[in-house]
Each structure stands twice: as C-alpha cells, then as structure tokens.
Design brief:
Layout lengths: L3 E2 L6 E7 L13 E10 L6 E4 H4 L3 E4 L7 H7 L7 E6 L7 H12 L13 H8 L5 H8 L4 E11 L13 H20 L3 H19 L7 H23 L3 H14 L4 H13 L3 H14 L4 H37 L13 H15 L7 H20 L3 H22 L5 H23 L3 H14 L4 H13 L3 H14 L4 H21 L4 H9 L2 H16 L14 H13 L10
Antiparallel strand pairs: 1-2, 2-6, 3-4, 3-5, 3-7, 6-7
Helix pairs in contact: 3-5, 6-7, 7-8, 8-9, 8-10, 9-10, 10-11, 11-12, 14-15, 15-16, 16-17, 16-18, 17-18, 18-19, 19-20
Length: about 575
C-alpha cells in the first residue's frame, strides 16, 4: 500500500505492511496496548537502533497516561489487532526517543531506569550527566532526525481487565482503594501475615500521599488526608515491630511525629523500637512523653520502664561476663610461656593462679597492650554510668577511678605530652573525671571534689561543669569566698543558670549560718574572723575621738574596753541579763 499522511498529524506517514483482523479497536483512557516495535534510521542502510523481538518481550503502554513518546499513542491507536505497519516520523516527534530507548534498554537488562538520577525531569538528567550511556543514542541527542518505526499490534486490553497501578488511577479511584487496602491489611494481621499486611498499609499510604501532594498545604482536604494517613502509618509500624524491623519503625515514627506531635501511639511505638535497640535515653524520653500526653497510661509506662531496666541489667551483666572471660583467657594464654603448658605439679596451678590474681591487683596494666587498655576504659566508663543510674555511687566511683588509672598510665608511659594521642587521651579523661567528681558530690566527699576539679581545670581552664562542681563543693565546705567566686564564673559563662546559682547561694548562706550556730559564734565573731581586727581598731579610734570631744560629761560616757574581746563580753553580759545591749555614746 502506498504511503499516506495521517489526518491531523503532520510529519507522520504510515504504510501498512500486513493487515490486521476485526474492526478498529476502541482506545479509552487507561487501555493497555501490547506491541512489538523496531526503530530504524532514515538513511540508505536503514540502520536498526532498537528491536523489541531481540529482547524477547513486547513493549506496553497505557493510553492517556502521558507516555514520553506521545506520537506512539497516535500510531498505535490507528492500527487493528495483528496489523504490522511502518511509520515515518519527522524529527519534531522523535526528540525524546533517546530517553525512552535508554529506559527500555535498562529494563531489558534488569536494571532500574531511574537509578542514579536526581529529582528532575528526564532531559535535565541527560544534560546533567551529558550522556545516555549508549553512543548511538547520544548521536540522536546531538542531531535530532527523522526515524522509522515498524510496529505490530499484539493486544488491546480493557482498562478493567488488569490490576491498575497507583500512578494510573484517578483521584477518586485512589480514595476508593484506601479503605479496601486497609481492611485487607487488618485481616492479614489477624492471620499473623505481617509482611503482606505491611505491604497493603504501605500501598494505601502511598495512594493518600499522592492525592495529598495535589492539595494545598493547610487546606481542609490536605488536613483530612493527613489524618487518614496516621492510622495506616501506625499499623505499618506495628507490623514492622512484629517483624523486628526496629530502625524502620524509628524512621517512620520520626516522620509521623514531626507532623503530629500529640500522637500518643506514635511515641509509644517509637519508644518500643528504641528499647529494642538499647537506645536507653531515647526510649525513656518517649515513654515519659506517653505518660505526659495520656496520664491513664502511666501504669503501662511504669511496667514498660521496669521491664526495660531489667533487660538492661541482664545485658550489662552478660556483656561484662563475656568480656572479662575473654580477657582472662587472653591473659592466661600470654602467661603460659613459650611451651604453651603450665606446671602440673600438685598444688602448683592453684598457687600460680593466686599469685596471678595478686599481680593483677598490684599492677593493673601488666600483660595488657594499649588497645586492650582503651577497650577497658570504655567498658569501665559504661559500667560506671550504669551504676550511677542505679544510684550505686560508691561502686561507680571505683569504676571511674580505675578507668582514670589506665588513662594515666597511657599518658605517662605510652605517649609524650603534647602529642596528638596525648590530647585524645585527655579528652577521654575529661568525662571520667567529671563523673567521678559527681559521684564524690553524691557521697559528700567535698574535699576530693575540690582536688579533682582543681587538677582538671589546670588543663581545661574555665570548664563550665568543673567550675560548677567545685562551686558546690566549696559551698558545702563553707568556703564562702571560693564558692562565690566560682558561682559568679558559672553565671557569667551561662546566664541561663542564674536561677541555679541563686539556689546555690541560698544553700551557701544556710550552711554558713549552721556552721556558726554549731560553733556558738555571733555575727560579730564571724565578721572579725572574715575581715580581721583592722576595722575594730578604726572603731576604737572613733570612740576615743568622740570621748575627747565630749568634754566634762564623763559620767555619761562608757569607756571603750582595751580590746574587742572585752567589748563583746560586755555586750554579751548585758544581753544575757535582760538589759539593753545597746551602748550609748555621747
């Protein structure tokens, strides 16, 4: 048959190579079209670029779903089933063919056609990467030209004859599918099929988010769609919890709680996930938030926290036992000597074991390399932190001291002062010393706190926590001047701590007054101890001057005593006799 132009489509010629069967099909939107195609250059050799038969699978498109090669819909809807036709298309219709061809080639290779692309249009990705990865397609991109397509229409599917994917559905269809998927997911959960149920919930969420993306944020429709997403997301997270996919739960609940901060179930599921992966702080924070948002769940939260604490203890002791057993085995292997065996004489093994334990106690660093010591430091720090949470401050301080001993040994024996490793070890020492100082505060060993913080501040001048701990220790020791100096430094560094500083100053005043009352000291005694006798001497001079000016009125003047002690005794006697303790001077 001779070539002819298709009506209303300039730049397209059609030649029928083999006639089809039956009438011309009807192609409503969503119709599935299955076909084979062959792409040729419009040159003398008619070079073949693509051939779907060589791939072994036909191509498919859906009518009205914005396929990149719009002209293909026009070509295929002009054919009957079984028809083979040749189409010549001008360059105006073939500009996007390299993109389409690249995607189909990657799909044929079993690859994702979108892999490695950024979030932009197809042309934008091509310009970004400067190449499709196929030389013949790159040539078509540089010089757009007319192409020849030989197509065979294999099948035309009714829009309702197959399961439509979400991107093919209209808004109403997506909204109708959501409750169906929700009910299917609930039924699968009851049967314990959590993987399939999670896929149903996820599909429903994607449908709602697709519809929501077309709405204006803040509009009522947008808000209602967000509310519909919440139970589906929570059900999906519950399935992930049952499947032990805890990090998936944390990721989804984080996204959910960023938008809905009052979602109690979201906090509860995230708390369960954090507890399962031993995130202690995050789990306790979320459990406490659940109790804060819904006080009726306080008993449930209490049970969960108690169970979580028990699991933490079990984990702690198991890890401790396993780690120390490994160290004992390694130490034992090192001490066996070059022959790998110890003496087997009667009683020798027991005596050697006892000596070995004494040697370990005497020198903790013996038989350990620096890497092993660093691991021990980290382990001891974790043990100390755990004991602090359990309020076992005496045992925790022992762990921190032992860890500091290892750091001291490494700094003094293994590295030089000023070396990069020395600075790294100093950063390890800092939290250990602060934690030990805090334990000493809890144990009321205030003088040790002052010593620890003084030594720490030699290398970390003005460190906020160290200064604050030293201020509390000085306040407890009634070192008023030092405590006020450190508290002033704390308030200067962190003005938000002003209320805490005021509380500490109030405690300092109470401590000082209690100490003076215990020592039976009056305010004048305390002032004399604080400021010395110099001010008392000035007062005596003023008293003497007033006496000289008084003239002959000696009878009404009380001579000041020779020293302040006598004055204080006289005032004390007058006060105890019930008379006025005021001394009138004229």
């Amino acid at each position: 048959m001779e070539a002819m132009y298709l009506l209303k489509h300039p730049g397209v010629q059609k030649k029928i190579l083999a006639g089809g069967t039956g009438p011309l099909p009807h192609f409503p939107p969503g119709t599935k079209v299955v076909f084979h195609f062959q792409t040729l250059l419009d040159d003398f050799e008619r070079t073949v670029i693509d051939d779907s038969r060589l791939v072994g699978r036909p191509a498919e498109i859906f009518v009205g779903k914005m396929f990149k090669m719009e002209v293909w819909e026009t070509l295929l809807t002009s054919m009957r089933v079984g028809e083979v036709a040749e189409f010549w298309c001008d360059a105006v219709h073939t500009g996007l063919y390299p993109i389409v061809s690249k995607g189909m080639r990657l799909i044929a290779q079993g690859k994702d056609p979108l892999e490695g692309q950024r979030h932009m249009c197809g042309m934008g990705n091509l310009f970004h990467y400067h190449s499709t990865g196929f030389p013949e397609l790159d040539e078509l991109m540089r010089t757009p030209q007319a192409l020849i397509f030989i197509m065979e229409l294999l099948q035309v599917g009714d829009p309702l004859s197959y399961q439509r994917e979400s991107w093919m559905m209209e808004k109403d269809e997506k909204l109708r599918m959501v409750p169906i998927l929700h009910s299917h997911g609930n039924a699968l959960v009851k049967r314990g099929e959590f993987q399939e149920a999670a896929s149903r919930y996820k599909e429903a969420v994607l449908l709602l988010k697709t519809v929501q993306s077309r709405e204006m944020p803040g509009d009522m429709d947008y808000i209602n769609l967000a509310r519909m997403i919440i139970p589906l997301e929570l059900n999906y997270c519950q399935c992930m919890l049952e499947m032990h996919e805890y990090y998936e739960v944390i990721e989804h609940t984080n996204e959910l709680l960023d938008k809905h901060r009052d979602c109690v179930k979201g906090y509860y599921k995230r708390a369960k996930a954090h507890a399962a992966v031993w995130n202690d702080r995050e789990a306790r924070r979320d459990f406490n938030m659940v109790a804060h948002l819904d006080p009726t769940l306080a008993s449930l939260v209490h049970r969960e926290l108690r169970a979580f604490s028990e699991r933490l203890k079990e984990k702690y002791w198991k890890e401790k036992e396993a780690y120390w057993n490994k160290l004992d085995i390694k130490d034992g292997a090192n001490e066996e000597g070059p022959f790998g065996k110890a003496d087997e004489e009667d009683g020798a093994e027991t005596e050697n074991a006892g000596k070995r334990k004494e040697d370990i106690k005497g020198d903790k660093t013996e038989g350990k390399d620096w890497q092993q010591m660093l691991r021990l430091v980290m382990l001891l720090q974790d043990e100390g932190n755990f004991l602090v949470k359990e309020k076992h401050f005496e045992e925790a301080s022992g762990k921190f001291r032992e860890a500091i001993d290892y750091v001291d040994f490494l700094q003094n024996k293994q590295v030089n002062d000023g070396h990069e490793d020395w600075d790294s070890l100093e950063k390890v020492r800092l939290p250990l010393t602060l934690n030990l100082s805090q334990c000493m505060l809890e144990l009321k060993q205030y003088q040790q706190v002052v010593q620890l913080t003084d030594k720490l501040l030699e290398h970390h001048q003005g460190h906020f926590k160290a200064v604050y701990q030293r201020a509390r220790a000085h306040a407890a020791l009634c070192n008023e001047e030092e405590a006020r100096r450190d508290l002033a430094a704390v308030e200067k560094q962190e003005p938000t701590f002003k209320s805490f500083v005021r509380q500490e100053l109030k405690k300092l005043g109470e401590n000082v007054r209690s100490m003076h009352a215990h020592q039976n000291k009056t305010y004048w005694d305390a002032t004399q101890e604080k400021w010395g006798t110099r001010k008392g001497c000035h007062k005596d001079e003023r008293l003497q001057g007033s006496k000289d000016q008084a003239g002959d009125d000696d009878d009404n003047v009380v001579d000041p005593p020779a020293d302040n002690g006598g004055l204080e005794e006289e005032r004390h006697d007058q006060a105890t006799d019930g008379e006025s303790s005021e001394i009138s001077i004229k």
